[in-house]
Amino acid sequence: MKTPSRLSVNVNAVAVIRNRRDVPWPSVTHLSALALNAGAKGITIHPRPDERHIRRTDVLDLSNMLTEDMQGKELCLEGYPDKRFMELLEEVRPTQVLFVPDDPSQQTSDHGWDFDENMDLLKEVIAQAKSLDIRTSLFVNPDPSQPTLAAEAGAERIEIYTGPYGACHADKEAEKRELEKVVATAEAAKAAGLLVNAGHDLTVENLPALIERVPYISEVSIGHGFTADALIHGFTESVRRFRGALGEL
Asked: Is 46 an active-site residue?
């Protein structure tokens, strides 16, 4: 029996390629539909203020597609909770929101929240999201001290930043050390009553070791690694490959 998918495909990189030209292809919605029809559980997007990849129109198009044609599939909006993002959240009402501490100029989400400085903000925006019946997740560093703070803020999940783990692909000893940090953080989240997501630089090669140690991960959000794989194998086959690496097939 096949197990349910834990794969959420981040399609920001698709939008980056499209935005190199003033043309509508590659289509964010079309490739998202391919991934979902191939077995992915959902789509993750990060609409930044400058729209350098995902545009507001993409958010609306994807939301409409999932509502009309993809019942049971999920949309996760990722972003910094400024006024504009919170207004978009209220308009779209995705399945899940991932709040990240990004400066607008950052290339990608590359660190977790500083809870000492942002606890009041996080409590406020998490309460707003919950009032809209949106599942809440906070981006945290691979540090076991962080999940209890995320729980204090009111989050239902954390997403562990796995970039340091993924960056060790050429150094197996360092990879083992970074994996231990991820595992310890996941265990702390479980003890705090939170569900665990993971994301950043996850690949077909490094997912199996992570899932073996943290089999209770609820979701992995994969964008760059998935897109790189799909350039070789295609979106449909890459969904199969990543779900295989997750032990789902």
From this structure: yes
The residue-averaged pLDDT of 117-133 equals 98
Tokens of 194: 């939170």
Q: Per residue in 1-33, pLDDT tens?
A: 467 899 999 999 999 999 999 999 999 999 999
Catalytic residue among 156, 178, 200, 219: 200
Distance (Å, whole) CA 137 – CA 157: 4
Each residue of 100-118: pLDDT tens digit?
A: 998 766 666 678 999 999 9
Q: How far apart are CA 105 and CA 103, in angstroms?
A: 5
Residue 49 neighbours by CB distance under 10 Å: 13
Q: Which of 74, 78, 156, 178 is catalytic?
A: 78
For domain 7-245, the CATH superfamily is Aldolase class I (3.20.20.70)
Would you state the pLDDT for residue 115?
Answer: 97
Query: Of 46, 74, 156, 175, which one is the catalytic site residue?
Result: 46
Q: E-strand spans in 26-121?
A: 42-45, 74-79, 96-99
| Token duo for residue 96 | 């899940």
